[in-house]
Design brief:
It contains 6 helices and no strands. Helix 3 runs antiparallel to helix 4. It is globular, with a radius of gyration of 17 Å.
Length: 149
């Protein structure tokens, strides 16, 4: 129990620091790390880490896409998407006898949904210079509002 409280305290402090530094490059990097952790947990729950090439392509996508949500790197987002999807499709063709279609579907859908959802936090943050961080906080509170009842 004490370990969970200590972890929660450290997590809250890190979240506050990241929200305080929301106009720096630290915010998209932190969002990318959170997206990669979420994707890793999904891949582990579906036991997809046994396909290392597709696994690494999905993790690369999750780490990098939030940094490409806005700004000068946004024009390369489609290139990264096509590259990672091509790598996953070639890995599926290579493992066709071992990789079920549902595993491939889980990898691709997870690769798009989790980083895409997390990238919306970066878009919200940079949508308004002054109030962007408030939009992010409101979005996070809205996601947890049924739990707060």
């Amino acid at each position: 129990m004490a370990t969970r409280l200590i972890s929660a305290g450290i997590g809250i402090v890190l979240a506050l620091i990241i929200l305080f530094l929301h106009n720096t490059v630290l915010f998209p990097i932190a969002v990318g790390i959170v997206a990669a952790i979420g994707l890793f947990e999904l891949y582990r729950a579906l036991q997809l880490q046994r396909y290392p090439i597709s696994f690494l392509a999905g993790m690369l996508y999750a780490l990098v896409v939030p940094s490409m949500a806005v700004g000068s790197l946004a024009k390369f987002r489609m290139l990264l998407t096509v590259f990672c999807l091509t790598v996953m499709m070639l890995d599926y063709i290579r493992h066709k006898t071992k990789m079920a279609a549902r595993n491939f579907f889980g990898m691709v859908v997870g690769m798009f949904l989790i980083p895409g959802a997390m990238s919306s936090a970066v878009v919200l943050n940079f949508s308004h210079e002054k109030h962007g961080v408030i939009y992010v906080v409101l979005a996070l509170l809205g996601a947890w509002s049924p739990v707060i009842e």
